[in-house]
Amino acid sequence: MQNTVLTYLEERNFKAIRNSFKDINEIDIAELFQTLFDEEMLERDKFILLFRLLPKDAAADVFSYMDSDMQMLLVSSFTDKELQNVINDLYIDDTVDIIEDMPANLVARIIKSADAETRKQINAILRYPKDSAGSLMNTEYIALRRDYTVRQAIDIIRKLGVNKETVYTLYITENRKLIGVLSLLELLTADDDAIVNDIMDTNVISVQTHEDKEVVADTFSKYDFAALPVVDADNRMIGIITFDDAMDVIEEEATEDFEKMAAVAPSDESYFKTSIFKHAKNRILWLLILMLSATVTGVIISSYDAAFAAVPLLVSFIPMITGTGGNCGSQTSTMIIRGMSLGEIRLKDFAKVIFKEFGIALLCGAVLALVNGVRIFIMYNSDPMVDAILLAVTVSLAIIATVIMSKCIACILPMLAKKLKLDPAIMAAPVITTIVDTCSTVLFFSLATKIFGI
Amino acid sequence: MQNTVLTYLEERNFKAIRNSFKDINEIDIAELFQTLFDEEMLERDKFILLFRLLPKDAAADVFSYMDSDMQMLLVSSFTDKELQNVINDLYIDDTVDIIEDMPANLVARIIKSADAETRKQINAILRYPKDSAGSLMNTEYIALRRDYTVRQAIDIIRKLGVNKETVYTLYITENRKLIGVLSLLELLTADDDAIVNDIMDTNVISVQTHEDKEVVADTFSKYDFAALPVVDADNRMIGIITFDDAMDVIEEEATEDFEKMAAVAPSDESYFKTSIFKHAKNRILWLLILMLSATVTGVIISSYDAAFAAVPLLVSFIPMITGTGGNCGSQTSTMIIRGMSLGEIRLKDFAKVIFKEFGIALLCGAVLALVNGVRIFIMYNSDPMVDAILLAVTVSLAIIATVIMSKCIACILPMLAKKLKLDPAIMAAPVITTIVDTCSTVLFFSLATKIFGI
Fold first, then answer.
1. φ, ψ for residue A91, nearest 5 deg
2. Strand pairing partners for B207?
3. B41–A contact, CB cutoff 8 A
4. Which is nearest to B238 in space by CA: B208, B200, B259, B268?
5. Taking CB atoms and an 8 Å limit, are B429 and A298 in contact across chains?
6. Where are the alpha helices (DSSP H) in B23-172?
7. In this structure, are residues A49 and A57 in contact, taking their beta carbons and an 8 Å threshold?
């Protein structure tokens, strides 16, 4: 596709480009622009030419799906008139998203080119804290009065609808307070003369402007809404959040969890948009903390130097035992953290979780210990320097104890974090592994010194 | 809430229960049932009584949001008539979901109570493989003819709409082939006499029945649709998938990634619904593989026994060096795997990723090495048994080399897995940690033997 467009552009065959744009989804056109931009396949001053070939009704949509770098380039090439057209065709929440990533001079230009009403609404949304429901919402929605007839309501929607992001959920307000909702489907299938008041649903689920986007995502996942109303503290209707934004939030939340669970400070930007320096900054703090914590394990190992002087072979089992402990711990902590973030596991389930993980640890520990015991016995049985049975028993006991300990630590710590109102995701693999390393080393050497009588 | 209901039930004040049900969202009612069931707060034979108090139009909805155990209990208590009412009020895709979790005798009862048309559609969906687009879809949608006027189309929707899961996207078919889409918004805002053919969008994005749910989730995330049409190989329209099911898929896919990345075999069931035995089964295979792989590191350590006999202190640095390597590797592999699953990182970006990670590794490695070198020098400078400078240099060099090596391994392996058409998620923390353990141990000891001249 990009090559066809480039060829047409070379040939100055603008009609052909215009025609092919008609058959492509706006999102795919935005992706085309993005590829040409990212791979530097087109000079920077040619993009505005290409953008002017877009169908009029697609331009704003295409613009809204681009990366901020591409948007900045275009905004700086737009005439005032062009900028005005694009901004006034955008949904308010998209304009706000765009503005948030732009330098001040371009923001000023964008806000100036919006009409008075749009400008007021943009400013209103910009006032809400980042990641709050208010910052995600769109202030364009359809509000009806309770005394409308179905026929009147349909007429209003047919007249107003084209500028609203979703018309599929209708909100009934009285003195600006949200008193009911009605799906467009319910409206359409009702009698023409029925009154909105009689068919609306008064049991309204909403979020407040200041609530975190996590609450928004959870509410969407729970109730399967196409749109969620946003109200202020007095239940006055302020805006709506649509399911497509909620889907983005759900993905962002998962990405944040992945990052935190890998001991990386979460970042809003995509991998390639983040500089090497920023990436390093996001990772170094946890690496330092964990590195320094790991020295504890080192100190413990050196304190047992008598043991590994007596049976030097013991040292070679450390990586296997600490590794297994770490893996068992990561499995458990990941399951618990994910379960809590999906709402499947709650704090009051603590006892149930411990019981379950203890059972799992017994089963897994037994299998691992058995396999290991047999392997050690076979490997060292003919070695006159080693008491194969004692070694097999020591390592097997250490393994089963390590598995149980690490699974227990890995379910206690995330739940404790939650209890302390911290994000459980910080108690994921890296932290658990470091703690389990220390504990399993102590376990192993204290067992070994007892069993070998060192 | 549950206590109020229980009290009313005790008092046989059914009217009060019926009234309070009217003010609660169906999903919250289902949750109430579920809590009473899970916590065994109500005898099992009382649930059907409670269910009969639901508003008629809410019953099927509430039923569809329950867990399968609760549903089974109800189905076995339903009269034939009740079952019929519930099943014929459910959306087909919900019925299929319910059926998939039930024992054969109840499935037979459910299918028998559906009307002929519903039964046919249920059977059609059941034929598609699990996790395919076909298994997710709903066969109830609104198809229009291209020659309808807007007025005719609106009338049809008003008549048919109530039984369809979404009427907000309309599909135009000809000889059953999908030739266009039209949003209800576009239809409502068009002239009464306009022809559907002239206002429909012929650039239709669809998925095929056999495609994986991952493709479905990606298409939804990319295009922000409220519904996605599902077609067969000949572009014949078969069904639709709605955004709420897509949201569930997006969450499921993320959960699967979390599980795989923690070396747990992914499972469809929630944490508590999975038995201890099943949990252990899902975890033991990777634990065994990783445990046995870790013995390699052990063998390497014992082969360097001359080194740690000469400088016993060396052994105590192993956990810190391998731990740091593992953490650096986990950070990188998590970022790469998540980036690939979001489509931000593609295989052709390989060189860019390696370059970026190398830079990050240099920065992080330098900081970690410096902090460590200084720490070691301070700690051991006054110790006459140790050459503090040599030790600081050795450990610092080992750290920086380990960081670079582990970040490189951690970006190569997931991308290699993708290239080999494996799931990159298996190359996450546990596997990377095990590999990095071995490599960093070798690195450390070969550096140490060289520097200390052992």
1. -70, 145
2. B230
3. no
4. B208
5. no
6. 26-38, 47-52, 56-64, 68-77, 80-89, 92-100, 104-113, 116-126, 133-136, 150-160
7. no
pLDDT the model gives residue B416: 92
Tokens 């694009």 belong to which residue? A86
Give yes or no for B371 touching A (CB within 8 A).
yes
Contacts of B202 in chain A (CB under 8 A): 23
Taking Cα atoms as reference points, which of B227, B134, B181, B169 lies closest to residue A224?
B227
Q: DSSP letters of B216-245?
A: HHHHHHHH--SEEEEE-TT-BEEEEEEHHH
Note every long-range contact of B347-355, with CB atoms under 8 Å and residues 24 or more positions apart, other chains counting.
B347/B415, B347/B418, B347/B419, B349/A272, B350/B415, B352/A272, B353/A271, B353/B411, B353/B415, B354/B408, B354/B411, B354/B412
Which candidate in B291, B321, B328, B332 is best for mutational testing of the A interface (most A CBs within 10 A)? Answer: B291
CA distance B78 to B112: 14
Q: What mean pLDDT do residues B251-261 have?
A: 85
Instruction: Give the β-pairing of B237-242 and B227-231.
Output: antiparallel
pLDDT higher than threshold 80 for residue A307: no
> For an interface test with B, which of A261, A276, A317 has the most B Cβ atoms less than 10 Å from its Cβ?
A276
Do the strands A169-174 and A143-144 form a parallel or antiparallel pair, or are they unpaired?
parallel
d(CA B415, CA B340): 9
Helix pair angle (B276-303, A350-380), 10° resolution: 40
pLDDT bracket for residue B126 (50, 70, 90):
confident
**What is d(CA A200, CA A340) in angstroms, rounded to the nearest whole number?**
35
Residues of A in contact with B243 (CB under 8 A): 226, 243-244, 247
State the burial class of residue A326 (Cβ atoms within 10 Å of its Cβ: 0-12, 13-18, 19+): buried
CA distances from B211 to A223, B206, B252, B274 (A): 27, 11, 16, 28
Angle of helix A92-100 versus helix A56-64 axis, rounded to 10? 50
- Separation of alpha carbons A260 and B142, rounded Å: 44
- For B277-307, b/e burial (b = at least 16 CB within 10 A) is eebbbbbbebbbebbbbbbbbbebbeebeeb
The answer to whether B295 and A374 have CB atoms below 8 angstroms apart is no
More confident residue, B351 or B453: B351
Best CA proximity match to A346, nearest among B246, B268, B67, B39: B39
Provide the 10 A C-beta neighbour count for residue B98.
22
Q: Does B446 touch chain A (CB under 8 A)?
A: no
Which ipTM was obtained for this model? 0.78
| Amino acid (1-letter code) at residue B340 | M
**A364 and B285 Cβ atoms separated by less than 8 Å:** no
Residues sharing a CB contact under 8 Å with residue B98, sequence separation 6 or more, in sequence order: B64, B68, B71, B90, B110
Please state the φ and ψ torsions of residue B195, each to the nearest 5 degrees: -100, 135
Residue (of A143, A153, A96, A90) closest to A122 by Cα position: A96
At residue B56, does pLDDT exceed 90?
A: no
Confidence grade of residue B397 (pLDDT, cut at 50, 70, 90):
very high
CB < 8 Å to A220, chain B: 247
Residue with tokens 């002087």: A309
**Contact A253/A217 with Cβ under 8 angstroms?**
yes
Supply the pTM of this predicted model: 0.79
CB contact burial B430-444 (16+ within 10 A = b; e otherwise): bbbbbbbbbbbbbbb
What's the pLDDT at A407? 92
- B330 and A263 within 8 Å at the Cβ level: the answer is yes
Sorted by sequence, the CB contacts under 8 Å of residue B29 that are 6+ apart come out as B21, B54, B58, B62
The partner residue sitting opposite A331, judged by closest CB among B283, B313, B322, is B283
CA distance, residue A413 to nearest chain B CA (Å) = 17
CA distance A283 to B140: 49
Cα separation, A58 vs A64, in Å, equals 10
Rounded CA-CA distance B352/A336 in Å is 35
